[in-house]
Amino acid sequence: MGINIQSDNILADLKRECLKQQQKGDKKQYLIPKRGLFKYVSNANYLGEIIEFFGYGLISLTWPGFFFCFTTFMILGARGLDNHNWYLKNFRDYPKNRKAVIPKIL
């Protein structure tokens, strides 16, 4: 849960920064998150969710718990790949070694 809180705070800070710039009359812009686990993955918030539900699946030791963990991984993994590809497409200076959701893997 700590990963999610930290990631959400980082994203909220970026959103506030973008809104301040828009209030000054600047055009809409997007910023790349660079702190915390965002140094390693494009979607640190999704990584936190996947880790949480993996833990839930392990603790529950039930088929529904494992299924919930698996579907969370599949849904957030697919969304994370889409987000990562969007970053690569729209930012020339986006870090090429950064993964989508899981450091050094996906």
Describe the protein in words.
With 106 residues, this protein is mostly helical. The protein contains three helices and no strands.
- Topology, number of strands: 0
Give, in order, the helices and strands.
HHH
| Class based on secondary structure composition and strand pairing | mainly alpha
The general outline is elongated
Q: What is the rounded Rg?
A: 16 Å
Uncertain runs are none
Biggest beta sheet attributes: none
- Any idea how many domains? 1
Q: Estimate the mean pLDDT confidence.
A: 90
> Helix count, per DSSP?
3
Distance between the termini: 21 Å
Helix fraction by DSSP (H/I, runs of at least 4): 55-70%
- The percentage of residues in β strands lies in under 5%
Quick take:
This protein has about 110 residues and is mainly α. It is built from three helices and no strands.
Protein topology:
Elements (H helix, E strand, L loop, with lengths): L1 H22 L20 H17 L2 H28 L16
Subcellular location: Membrane
GO cellular component, one term: membrane
Family: Belongs to the steroid 5-alpha reductase family.
